[in-house]
Each structure stands twice: as structure tokens, then as C-alpha cells.
Design goal:
Largest sheet of chain A: 6 strands, parallel
Helix content of chain A: 25-40%
Oligomer: heterodimer
CATH architecture of the largest domain in chain A: 3-Layer(aba) Sandwich
Structural class of chain A: alpha/beta
Bound molecules: thiamine diphosphate
Helix content of chain B: 25-40%
Radius of gyration of chain B: 19 Å
Shape of chain A: globular
Number of strands of chain B: 9
Order of helices and strands of chain B: EHEEHEEHEEHEEH
CATH topology of the largest domain in chain B: Alpha-Beta Plaits
Largest interface: A-B, 30 and 31 residues
Radius of gyration of chain A: 24 Å
CATH architecture of the largest domain in chain B: 2-Layer Sandwich
Structural class of chain B: alpha+beta
Strand content of chain B: 35-45%
Number of domains of chain B: 2
Strand order of the largest sheet of chain A: 3-2-4-5-7-6
Amino acid sequence: MQRTGAQIVWEVLTREGVDTIFGYPGGAILPTYDAMVDYPIHHVLVRHEQGASHMADGYARATGKVGCCIATSGPGATNLITGLATAMLDSTPVVAITGQVGSKAIGTDAFQETDVTGVSMPVTKHNYLVTDVRELAQVLREAFHVARSGRPGPVLVDIAKDVQQATTEFEWDDRPIRLRGHRPRAQALNESMSRALELIKAARRPVILAGHGIILSGAYNEVREFAEKTNTPVALTLLGISAFPRSHPLCLGPMGMHGEAYVNQAIQESDLLLAFGMRFDDRVTGTIKTYAPHARKIHIDIDPTEINKNIKVDVAIISDLKAALERLNPHLEAGDHSEWIARIQEWAEDTHARDIIRNAPTSERLLSPHVVHDLWKATSGNAITVSDVGQHQMYEMQYYSHDRPKTLITSGGLGTMGFALPAAIGVKMGMPDEEVWVVAGDGGFQMTMAELATAVQENLDLKIAIVNNSFLGMVRQWQEFFYDKRYAATPLFNPDFTKIAGAYGIPAFLVDNREDVIPTIEKARQTPGVVLIEFRVEMEEVVYPMIPPGSSLAEMIRRPKNGEGTTEVSDEMKQAGIGAASV
Amino acid sequence: MKHILVALVENKPGVLARVAGLFRRRNFNIDSLTVGTTEDPSVSRMTMVIDSTATDASAVERNLYKLINVLYVQDVTNEPSVIRDLAMVKVSAGPENRGEILQLVDIYKARIVDVGQQTMIVELTASPSKVDQFVQLLEPFGVREMVRTGLIAMKRGDEPMFQEETDEHARGEWRVLNTN
Ligand SMILES: Cc1ncc(C[n+]2csc(CCOP(=O)(O)OP(=O)(O)O)c2C)c(N)n1
């Protein structure tokens, strides 16, 4: 059948299973927007294209499907970039479609012309510029294939305007895509499997490092089976939160810079680390010179370039995690590491003694950990929380206990402030029956709060918790620790967030003491539609524990003993924090 | 140590930019990179030389495979192969030293491809180390201009380079295991 390029976009997208797309129109993409009206696609009109790419990302993280966004040439396309970079670092499958100036005008600095494939090259898994309508259908199919296959990632398709207007014969080709390049081997070698089994059998102090790969590969049951059979405790990366039930007796909790001290200690003392779909990011290793000095390492990852990138490993299993564990698990021998686990529990006692929830059940000022903890309580731990970036994000990691997979959505690798609200809109569109909460700081929320309009326009049932400390809290914390409390550019003037909400017709509440937290959350839950709660919290909180950047996992700044006050930071740690090569 | 990688890539716009972008982004240090056509018009061939004291050649290989347009990567460093570099040297050649230069040209099986009033262009195709020596020997006469293509390499023997239909990108895994 004869189709225009614009129609082909929707012919392919609908066949690839896309029913929702996030976008913003403009001249170079208008033909495609015009054709959209005739197809069963729900278009979500965002308020800034960054929102569109975060929404597609959030949608993909929550559903496991490819998220889609669309924008015009030039500024529309460049506004997508932050969202694409976010999806790239966290390996989420996103397809972004952008209009480009007419193919004859490319290279002439035409109105709204940007070299979008050039700009997006380092932040996409792959990208395409289409200047011939006959290639369009195949390119779009490839884009979906590349986005979701292997290690997922964002793919951008830039379509010249005349290609959208041109007509060609369209025939849906549903044979599986086979690319000439890009045929990663997905099957692990037998010899690495048997070597891994030997190390597992010999281990006395094993720890599983559970990462995002578990979620991407859908390997929850296999990881659980592995942990239970071998009696191996499980430490979580930030994106590994919800990849293993937090309430499981073998779950230790989060590792790394703001992970729990006993978890990091367990890693340092371990004799075998099982890295399942994680990439030894500097945020979880601290300085690699002293990382887990006694441990052998088995690394299972689908991406060969992750092997030996940061940490040299003893066995590499390059495979989809689920497939690898399906092969390993039947050969595992029942293990008993109760002594090792008891030792970790002993270390954990010290952490519990410092715990802010137990030690400061109420306090004069509202504390962020209390907000997050009470949100967990009020939602019975069952909500999907979409967290922004900063102190509140680390509190969310520490105090909201996630048991179900894919229930913490946050920008881990790029740490993109402004991610939460738009990503949550994507999450809610993809999972309409879930209770979805945005948890954002006052800084990050203001970066993308224009998307409140999108949420209202879409009639979403979305709950928003702003943790307002009137500071760029996490940066202020670094200034407190490492820069002698010289608060350069971190105090924030803030609007009245409840009034902002009011302007959109969003019911809003202000909470500034502990007693009102749970009742107000309850009220929000019972109010349909978008509801916003502003929590005014203590201004100068500090996220403990903390490994200063460049320090070892063994050198944490601990929570103060009585649960209140602050911990002095040693001069060495201060120097390490300022001087670290990567911050 | 120098590592020589040969990559077959799709002959499509932007592929060179992707490879160059990868090297820049991952901070890979490349001594030389050549690109040329092959027996298959849809495929280009790249040869790159990597100083493996600064850059892990296996990491380069594995990262190349992440590029969608890369079909095959071969590390020929330790394989029996033919390795060539081509140099053109414009050397000062007054009447007094032409004879001596001609002698060198003869010994090295180089060729004179242009003769001017005061200069000559000498061309040599040989192994990189031989080219190095030759250029060094010309230096005392006065090298006015010099260009080298960068090295190209081909494995000896009858074995086909790779089977496009069946080969998977698994070599990276082998290399990883071998280093441990
Ligand atoms: C887009 C972007 N810009 C800057 C940063 C650096 N940064 C990290 S955390 C942070 C402060 C966040 O403040 P806020 O949103 O108020 O959250 P809080 O830390 O107070 O909970 C900043 C500026 C970032 N992560 N992302």
C-alpha cells in the first residue's frame, strides 16, 4: 500500500506496540503530527521536551516496554538530550523521533537546523538520520530492535521533513530483525560457568551485589533462588533497589556512598562478590584501590565492555542474567553461611543503634527520613515511588522499603535533577492501576514543575511529595563537610508550592510536623487526581552514612550515636572529598 | 606494546565519526587509524594501532562491537600477517647528494616518484619499522615534507576472515577470560 513517510511512522510504531507517545510539535515534525490523528496513539503533550524524554524513560522503566517520545528539529530535539543521556546511563529502552529540516536544506544552517545525530551520538545507543523515505520503515523497526535488545538504551531517529511528506510503497515486514553488526553473543561459555561454580562452592563469606540488570532481565526469581539455595546475603545498588525484596531475611540493604556501613563492611570483608547486573560504579566502590581486597569476583553482565572496566574480576559471564542463572542454579549446592550472616548482623547492631527513625521518633523540626519512612508506612510499602536527585533520594533508598520489582524509579547513573515529576507521569501512564508517588526536593522539583500541567491535562492520579529544605540539600551537605560551610549558591528562594499547585487546580497541603505526616498522606491518597504535599523539613540535614568521594568503603562518616547532632569530619576525609578525581 | 586491530564496518555515512567519537569518549589512545574500501562495496575496513601500555586493546575491541555498524574485529597483533605502511618523503636533493639518496632508495626498494630542482619525492611501502629506518636515514639530507598512510594489515593464509552468517561477537569474551 502507498503511504507517506509520516504515515509510515505510525504504521510502524503501532505495530511495535506503542500506544502512548510523549511529545511536543513544531514545524519540522508537523507532517507526522498531522498523520498521527488517524492512528490509535495517545499523544501526551508535555510542557518541555526534556519532560517528554523523561516520561518515555519512566514509562519504559515501569512497563519494561520501549518508551517513545517525539519532538521537532533544532531546539525541540536538543531539549530531549538530558532525558536521552539519563536513559543511556541507566540502560532504558527509549525511541526518540525528531523532525529534521528538508534533506536538501541539511548543512545550510536552515531555520531550526541542528545536527541532531551529531549532538545525540554520545548519549544514545545508536541513532539514524533518514533522508530517503524508502528506508524509513526499516530504520524505525531497527530502532526498536536496537533499543530493547542486549543491554537496552535510547535510540534516536531523525527524519527529514520531506521524507515525512514523500510517498512510498509500505509493506510490513515482520521477519525478525537481523542486523549485520550488533550480534552480541548472549550465551555464557561452559568454562566460565564451571569456574564460577567452583568459586561459589569454595566461598565462606559471599555477598551478592544486586544491580539494575536483575530488573532489566527479569531475573528476580532466579536471583532469589540463587541467594536462598546458597544462603548468600544480598547488597543492593541504588538501581538494584526493588530487584530483591528488602524485607527478605537475606537482604542487607543498600551499598555504596550512602549505603549502610555494615553492608559496605560486608563487601570489604567478603571473600566472593557475585556482581549480578551491576557495573561497579564509583558511587558503590569508593576508591577502587582498596575495594573488597579479599574477594574473588564473579561478574555476570550482558555488556562485555563492563567486564574489567572498573574492577578486575576473576570470572566473567557475559550473558543475560536470567539465562545465566537458569543455567547456574540447578548446579548449586545448598550452602550455609549462617556464621557469616551472624557477623554481618552484629555489625548491623551498631547501625541500628544510630538509626534516626528509632532514636528520634519525634523531633522539634520535621526530618526528611521521617517523611520517607511514614510515606512507606502509609502506603504499606506498596507504592511505586519516583524519586528525584539529592538527599531525599538517598533517604528514599534508605527508608522506603521496596519489596516489589520496579517500584523505585530514579535517575541513578546521570543523577538528573528534574527527573521525578515527568518520569512519574510516564510511570503512571504505563501502570495506571499503581499508586505512584513523586518524591522530590525543592530544587529538582522546580526544574521541571511545568509538567504539573501535563499531569492535570492527562487526568492522572498522581501524588507528589516535595521535601522542602530551602537548600540544594545534597550540595549544601558537601559544602558543610568539605568546604567549611561556605554555602555558595545553595540557599534557595522558593515559591509557595501549595499556591503553585493551586494555580493548576491541584489540591495541596503543607506539613511541617511529624504528627501530620501520615494523616496528610492519607488525605492525599483519598483525594482523586493530582495531589501535592509540601513537607517543610529541617534545613540543614545531613545524609549519613557517607563515604567521602575518593575514600574507601571502610571509611564512612557514620551517623551520630544518639541519632541527633552531627558527626565531625576528619581532615583526611575532607581532603579526600575535595581532591577526589571524580566527585 | 603496539596492538593492531582490524575492523570491518558498514560503509555508511557517519560510521567513521562513531568510531572516532568512541575513542574520544572512552579516552582511548590511537597511534594511527586508516580507513579504506574492501572487496565488498558495502563494507569498509579500518586498521588501528593502539599503544596497549596506555589503552587496553581488548576494551577497544569490545567497545567497537557495541557500535551497531561494526561487523567484525580482529586482533592481528599475534597472528602471522602482512603489515604495511606507505610513506612519501620530499627530501632535499641537490646535485651533490642525489647519488647517495639513490643508493638508499635502491637498498630499501623504495621508488622516486617526483624530481624537482632541489627536491625529490621518495615513496616506500614496507613494514612500519623499515619505513622508520628509511625516514631516519633520509633526515640528514633535509626532509621537507613527509606523510605516512598509517599501517594496514592482513592475516596470512587461506582461512576466511570471518563468516558473516554465523559469527557472533564473542571474541571479546575470550580475550577477557584469557587475561585472568
Ligand atoms: C540537573 C542537575 N544539576 C545539578 C545537579 C547537582 N546536584 C546534585 S544534588 C543537588 C541538590 C538537590 O537539591 P534538592 O532538589 O533541593 O534536593 P535535596 O538534596 O535538598 O533533597 C544538586 C544541585 C544535578 N544532580 N542535576
